[in-house]
Specification:
2 strands; single chain
């Protein structure tokens, strides 16, 4: 429930890749490293964790980067962020 800085966030798969989850907007969320590590290859319910919001495709990407102070696109985000 805390709000870590963008540099401290990781991309977490709601349905883990180990369980067949795909890297799609509807299956990824931002998570701090410790929460991502705690959840591991389990679903949120298996890890007894709750999502604060359901994942969804963002309406706008440039404003997200601007608000978070991101000047470069993270290598893992290249598939989703237009050049």
């Amino acid at each position: 429930g805390t709000r870590p800085h963008a540099r401290e966030l990781t991309i977490d798969h709601v349905l883990p890749r180990a369980q067949g989850g795909l890297t799609r907007w509807a299956n990824v969320v931002a998570a701090c490293r410790s929460c991502n590590h705690h959840k591991g290859s389990r679903t949120p319910s298996e890890a007894r964790m709750m999502l604060l919001r359901s994942p969804h495709e963002p309406r706008s990407l440039p404003s997200i980067g601007h608000r978070l102070g991101i000047r470069e696109v993270h290598a893992k985000w290249v598939l989703w962020v237009p050049a």
